[in-house]
Design brief:
It is built from 1 helix and 5 strands; from the N terminus they run βββββα. By secondary structure, the chain is α+β, with helices and mostly antiparallel strands.
Amino acid sequence: MASNQQAGPGIGELAKDRKARRIGVVMGEIGGRVQMRPVGGGIEWEAMPGDVLVPEAREELSARLAVKSNNSRVGL
């Protein structure tokens, strides 16, 4: 990797799929595509590596807060 390129988020880290406009957790990479899962769990989706970015702090906070809010509504 060239020194001017940054690696994308690793497995288990939050990431932003800019094409799908979603925040998720990186689950792995298969066949040149990144597998991502919603922060609160759910069905995985695939993203192209070039579309997977580190989320901004406000995006990460918003995603984590949404999960906490949902968990409190359902009694977790």
